[in-house]
Amino acid sequence: MRFSEPQLTRVDPISALKILSVVRDFTNYDIEALKSGKDLKTIIEDPKYTLEEKYLILKNILTHLDLKNKNSLANKKIKEFEALGNSEAFEALDKLTDYYNSICKSCKSQLIMTKRHYQKSLKFDSKIDNFNESERDTKFYELGEWERLPLIYKKHEFISFFHQELGNFFSEDQINGILNNSFDYTIEQPSIRLLAIEYEDSAGVHRAFHRIYKKYKERREILKDKAISHSVKKSKSKERKKEDLKFSRNDFMQKINEKHYIKATNKINFAIIMFLSFKKIRENYLNNCDDNKSIQKFFQSLSCNIKC
Q: What Cα–Cα distance (Å) separates residue 70 from each residue in 73, 74, 80, 167?
């Protein structure tokens, strides 16, 4: 797969602001507030930044501070200090030169690894996007069989609740994107796809999804009770004695549990919704799971984090 170079002009405004904020900090020319390679490493290891954001941070810092680039901000600043011609300026110039070389060296080192992870992420997303092709990767088979969850509430009621829970973290369009990608409530819906929605408050988002799962599960229990009552009434209407019933309680419960809305109410399904919605979670799978680990095991682990 050919590497597609990320572009700052193609990321969403929120990501662009995060990237530029870090670049600004590292291109600050206040001698008393210069950053270090350790600061850069902390940024690159921070999970609040996606791989794409990390790549663009490193690329842009390198572009601005590379002394080999005659048009870089670093060279322009050096010329300004040289023009001053006093001892203080030359002292500051030595510090800046050392700083530029140190940060650029760190950037180049971090960029190699970040680019490798980013390419792996693109390849991974491409595999999932194409899981319906004839040569399906068995590792993603279970995800390929996944279907949108049935909307077991009144449409307006559930959508309002969904927006209420996620409104503090995402825009209205982003929430609608998650809904359309996760729940079956319209006649015509596009294929399930990978969304690239970002978030900052990981714990808050997980708690919100736990409340959504809990509400969905409560509705499931109501429908399950109704199904049981309906089946019991149907059996009694036939005026048969208990001993004449041809199925055991276990057989009866199995029939109830095979209903689509019963099977759908599984926390793993909500883990899959988060996996499909948030690139950061897919990157977490990439970075922490070896090639032999089933993606289903990752979903099980992720579902354990969907809690209050």
A: 9, 9, 14, 47
